[in-house]
Amino acid sequence: MTFKIAFIGAGSIGFTRGLLRDILSVPEFQKIEVTFTDINQKNLEMVTQLCQRDIDENG
Question: pTM score > 0.85 for this model?
Fold first, then answer.
């Protein structure tokens, strides 16, 4: 199944990483496209990098 999920307010490091981890733990959701948006560009960039690192390290 392929679909897109948008995280609005993704600048919250703990919440966003945890939610993404939970979503990607469902085998049917491992091929999804994820986008992040937040009003705080600095937090958004940090969360994006951390989530990408998590994905790269865990396949």
Answer: no
Whether domain 4-58 has CATH 3.40.50.150: no
Domain ranges of the chain: 4-58
Q: How confident is the prediction along the chain (59 residues), in pLDDT tens digits per residue? A: 678 999 999 988 889 999 999 999 999 888 899 999 999 999 999 999 999 998 898 87
Closest CA to 23 of 8, 13, 33: 33
**What one-character DSSP code corresponds to residue 25?**
T
